[in-house]
Amino acid sequence: MKxxxxxxxxxxxxISVSAKEQERATLQIDEKVVVEDVLVKKGQxxxxxxxxxxxxxxxxxxxxxxxxxxxKIKEFxxxxxxxxxxxxxxxxxxxxEFTSGDLGGESNQILTxxxxxxxxKYKHKKDCETVDKRFGKTKIAGLTLGMTEKEVVKKLGxxxxxxxxxxxxxxxxxxKLNGVKFDVTSVIHVKLEKGKVISVSVSQFMVY
Length: 208
Prior knowledge:
The chain is mainly beta. It is 12% helix and 39% strand.
């Protein structure tokens, strides 16, 4: 869970420059990539943008995914660094990933869902279950692999940050559940290669 937590920690560096300017944040979006001057969008992605193949982040459990595909949950690290993972490699060589961790609670709620075009470059390839299904056309946040950068922006609107290798959407919100106040952080991270989508991941974390 180290990367997921570091993303949350980095968001604490968010500052509001003035009443007229929009809030900006500094985020760690990959193990070695830190991005500055990220526009903070208020609110959360729509529910259908957090739902993939019938599984919804913060609502569905990792156990349900493992049961459906008759595979085991892999775990890495421990404590607050724990990452629980179910990943599937399709017949088209794409990889679909579901993760949970310490912030997923005892119910193992899904925190991140990711889709990767080339499983050969996916770091958890050896831990994945191979299934007779094609994931290449699976929609994540309304996006599919192979879309152009322009199509991504047209679909999701103004990015929080845009660069040659990625398009990023970052959201902050507050909500109350059972009398407890939570800060909600959501991220849609689109990786690009030659101007086209090669991976999409959606994450949401709730801390009180």
